[in-house]
């Protein structure tokens, strides 16, 4: 190491000498400078070009400072269009350049690309060369760069959490949490929580110009430390101690602008491309002190007579300009992160195909390094990346740190040895203690001094993460002459304080940082670093872009409103609409109300759109990219033209077809109202999304908002009927103003005002006034303009509330890091002291016999000449591909044998997962050719699913069950009936012990990245779920992906234990460490294009694979301590093939190894004597009833532990019942007029509609999540679709029954309906089945949609039609005969029918009917509404039928439709 440091010092001295020589050139005249440079470069550049450059520099120097800082020289290669091949070759030998003066703010995309391609051709090499030039320029004139030293002293972080069953998210626990939090506001603390220490009195220092690596096992506190240092620690955590930047405390400057935390979670706008994402980030972050640095540089260079190098000058100027839409900095960042190949690809998400997971991780990194921040805290930025890509990125960052004097603290999961060696300093953290902090070269010395030694074939990073673990420590004990005793982490921390690196760190921390030495540009003291005008431009550009990318949604909305307008127009068609009586006026009122409701619900799409955008907004807000109003203003303003267009369409179709007042002025006034209703509705739903922050809660919140406005709007309950204590709600409801304004605009028209009607009391009245009085609407013209002003005011108010919610509210739930560490700390604390130490590295020996309780049949798999094709993608056909099919696997032959662990490896795109899916029978499309045999018999997928297991890369499990319950569910469905209950339970316990899950068996699985198990625990659960099926053959796709070295070792120990039981195990693996790679027995290596280039044993220390490749002429020998897996992939890469002129697939096919494998495959393709083919009497191991019972058992736990679903819908139902009961207090006893009866119908209609819609929208996310698990479990042969669907359908019944029961009791008693048993039971029956069919309707919409977002849009399409034909807006006899058919198939119409007939169909009381004599209620119900008492039996049957129909459709679609494409 000292030699390396010495060579570095010599290089530095040489560099300073060369810089000083260049400084002396400043004394020469300009002509002399360029003459000397021209002479030196004559060998590769012409004198003419040199003179041209000198003249152009001279011209630039004469410009005013403002223009000079914006003008650069762009060097371009001179090309001739008509040159032949010889001329081309000569040009390559002797390049000719032209120099062009350019305004750096107006560089075109082609010019930027050409510059980056030329200057940064090979990212890490050219980046170093360029940064050296840039640093040389800065040092040459003595400009000092700002640097940052981050110190943390005695930092302790505590968290509080529930313990044991109290932490389970059950309905009762959640209700207790809510109750305790309410009491907490009044100072009553009933909650008992355990205090957990995440960071324990840690101190240290992150120095500038040095790369620091943060290492530690899972749940050691890495993420918490990074968040604390970046000033972004969650407010629920308590932190003590001091964190300073250059001596300043976190409260003395703006930490979010000074430093950046790069999260391990990739949160991006899916519709934006990679380039657009980075450009937007760059525009929001600004350029920092770059412009001031450039000005100072230019000033000193001019004084010294120094001319900078053109390329460096252009780059510095182009990256120092503020307000540019697309910066050269973005192109540079794309290149060094290897993202230039996907720069114009959208980021994508689970709904839209975009870039890969590894590329998303790089976008997360690029989003921050594209800005001016030089202090970076980077959390696991290499997840999903192979080691060569990680090395390239870290190498470029190292160059930026060393030459740009940046400060970087980076945590990595499994750094390869070559990546590890790029870091200058190491911080090792474990169990909240810092075990080591200091230079990388001393870390092994420290552990040697403690008595532990890193083995020769062990990566240092892997050793460091394992040596502090109680389970893994013993294997590294160096002094075998002394007895080993476990050294706890706290003791390591104390030993480090006495180690020389620890003493030096303590001395450095004891000397306070001199604040006067801090560069003025190092810290940022203002939250606003970019002008508001530039932020608004960027935000408007982004929102406009997203409007275009989401055009389908707005087109769909427009089509939806066109359909609704046509339906409404044909129901209320003018040929059936008259203006002769008050009854005719009531029909127009119904038409106006229908338009009001449709345009109100039209804004509901803002809820999912806004909630989808919230995670990215919260990230940007916390990084202080922009204030909240800069996000909300463009959001609202850019949707105005769309709203105007939709309003024009609605009014254009409906106004004259329905036959509203014909005056043009009233047409435009009506359109203005429709536009303002849409704006108000959009504001309501945006504010709802902002306050609720999750789809389930927002659906409920939105329903509450609309219900309150709807019921108190004056049309369900007339203004005079609203109780005095609720009348404030009428004036606070935007719909009351909209209703008044619409009615006044129509009924004060001449055609209504010129007709007189006779009232029942003999008096005459103007028809328009009479109609308005009947519905208790004001009849002065001023109420139109009051309505307009109120709607405009509400629109502004709701958008302001949306902005305030974004400013002050945080996302729901806690960061994964905090939850994970709290949970894992609990688990660690609960671990038994009796856990035996075992060597992770015992890959080739039997770590434990793991004798299984149940016997199984060892089976071999052989496959011969397997090919796999898919239809040629349309994009490739557009690019000129002539074939109809794309081949992904090409003549793959091999065999997997019992007791042998086989690795399936290759570069990205080689076809590893594709081959595994084909062999396992998991492909849902494509064309498969070739032979696959199981122990000599042709593979039959139905039987193969029973004896095989498949561990998918994505760990998909039901989130609300525990680890043990997940295993029990799998075991009871997949083990044969011959196995008794006790044997199954013992077997589950045996597998939990084998997979090391017994200490977390009662932990909730949770959602990945949100709650529950850590990634590594989830991986082991995935393996265990397959093992309890007692399979003979197991496929594992990337079992170590996304894990740190120690977690990967635990998983591989599990895999090895499984193999040692005699099973056949095959794993795809990405970039394994030496330990993990050499745990495998055999290797099947593939190259891009799906071809095999090696298949055979690895040998001890990978000797077989090394000898095979080293025997190929031209392949370089493996270096000492090099990872054979990394070396093997490098020497067999496509670049190596081109360089050596060899096809490795052809070489393998001509080798003796291939002949041996063919012979083995042929032998395994014939059944052994005395064996029989696999046979099972039934497709599934359990009967249909058994499957149903198991699914129902799991659904019971899922529903019981889903408070965000059940508690939310119960709370909403309770709120709705109490609200309606209060507003419609004793309304059932008011039976004096037809208006009273319509009010009662309105109350029933409103209650069922809103609770039903809420049930529908809240069930959709639950079903969607469970459906993903269903796809995996069905593919594994656990059960068929029918028992699963019936179990989910049945599970809803008790919850909806309870919901319907307490709703009925509250509403029935408060509204004052007659207390007779028959009427009460009918009310309950109809309410129960109405809630049930709405719930099943929501489930059905998910089953026919790819995801719950599309299901929500699909379901919402029919809400308005349900509204129209419910019998509230227009009675059945008045519906045109061409639409009556829809009335009979509208579920809501049958609900209203049943409620009215059962409560009022037999009443003899008389009521007042407008324009007619008094009638009996039962006669009025029969003649006006068309409701017949003797039809109630049919109504009941139809309501049950709707529930059954939607449930059956859900089951059928779940079975037949598969939206999982593989």
TrEMBL record:
Q: Which Pfam families match?
A: ABC2_membrane, ABC2_membrane_7, ABC_tran, ABC_trans_N, PDR_assoc
> Mind telling me which Gene3D superfamilies this protein's record contains?
P-loop containing nucleotide triphosphate hydrolases (3.40.50.300)
Query: Entry's InterPro entries?
Result: AAA+_ATPase (IPR003593), ABC2_TM (IPR013525), ABC_trans_N (IPR029481), ABC_transporter-like_ATP-bd (IPR003439), ABCG_dom (IPR043926), ABCG_PDR_2 (IPR034003), P-loop_NTPase (IPR027417), PDR_assoc (IPR013581)
Q: How does the protein's chain sit in the membrane according to the entry?
A: Multi-pass membrane protein
Keyword list (alphabetical) reads:
ATP-binding, Membrane, Nucleotide-binding, Repeat, Transmembrane, Transmembrane helix, Transport
Where is this chain's protein located in or outside the cell? Membrane
Q: Does the keyword Ribonucleoprotein apply?
A: no
Q: Which GO molecular function annotations are given, in alphabetical order?
A: ABC-type transporter activity; ATP binding; ATP hydrolysis activity
The record's Gene Ontology cellular component field reads: membrane
Query: What highest taxon heads this organism's lineage?
Result: Eukaryota
Which residues are listed as membrane-spanning?
Answer: 552-573, 585-605, 636-658, 695-717, 783-809, 1207-1228, 1240-1263, 1283-1308, 1320-1339, 1351-1371, 1378-1396, 1431-1454
The chain positions of domain ABC transporter read 183-456, 861-1114
Family to which the UniProt record says this protein belongs:
Belongs to the ABC transporter superfamily. ABCG family. PDR (TC 3.A.1.205) subfamily.
Q: What is the designated name of this protein?
A: LOW QUALITY PROTEIN: ABC transporter G family member 42-like
Q: Which organism is it from?
A: Dioscorea cayennensis subsp. rotundata (White Guinea yam)
